[in-house]
Amino acid sequence: MRSNARIVVMDRHDLVRVGLRRYLAPLAGVSVVADFDAPAPLLPYLRAHAVDVLVLDCFQREHDGQAERLLAQLQRLTAARVVVFTAECSASAHAMCKRASAYAFIDKRTALDEVVDTLRNAALSRPGPPRDDDAAFLQAGLRRLSVQEFRVLGLVARGMGTAQISDRLSRSRSTISTHKWNALGKLQVGSELEFLRLLPPDFQWPETP
Fold first, then answer.
1. Model's pTM, two decimal places?
2. Number of Cβ within a 10 Å radius of residue 206
3. C-alpha to C-alpha distance for 187 and 144, rounded to whole angstroms
4. b/e map of 56-93 (b: 16 or more CB within 10 Å)?
């Protein structure tokens, strides 16, 4: 991981902010440089500082109904990879975050190790990958996936949705969604649709990552 990836956290719960700071502090190459309990102080900070990863809960009670507007503001304001870390895991919340090109969508019930892996991947990612050879680009990206991410994305490539993949692999929908978003992030694509468009018609899905 490149040196000193800058992470900013926004969540109204002190426990979440303090917990992420303490859990990430010992890890080399990442640093929580600021945390906020609301959008009002966050937005000016982002205007004045470069940030690599923004971890936020945009579905909190006090700005209920404004999540889409906030995500749109962030999209215009910062080049940071946005990781939505929330207990609001409805299909509409997922869709909203996809439209806003969020890097990942994580259920707050997810194991901390998986959360940290997602943040590491976000810190490593780069926007705007070259696409001169889509097949070669995909083959290289697939080698960076975990076994679970690879299996999930392979089923996405076959046209299966989250519910179908959940039934097929006997894992919860939130777990499948997390693996899917992590995999798309490693491939540096913003949505399932973009990923499917990237697949060449004759692309042969490899058996192992």
1. 0.60
2. 12
3. 8
4. bbbbbeebeeebeebbebbeeebebbbbbbbebbeeeb
Q: Which domains does the chain have, with CATH numbers?
A: 5-124 (3.40.50.2300), 134-198 (1.10.10.10)
Report the chain (209 residues): mean pLDDT per 10 consecutive residues.
75 92 84 92 90 89 72 84 88 82 88 83 61 63 87 87 90 89 79 71 70
CA distance 82 to 115: 13
Beta bridge partners of 35: 9
Helix (H, G, I), strand (E, B) or coil at 199: coil
Alpha-carbon distances, residue 126 vs 56, 130, 189 (angstroms): 20, 11, 10
Q: Are 106 and 95 in contact (CB under 8 A)?
A: no
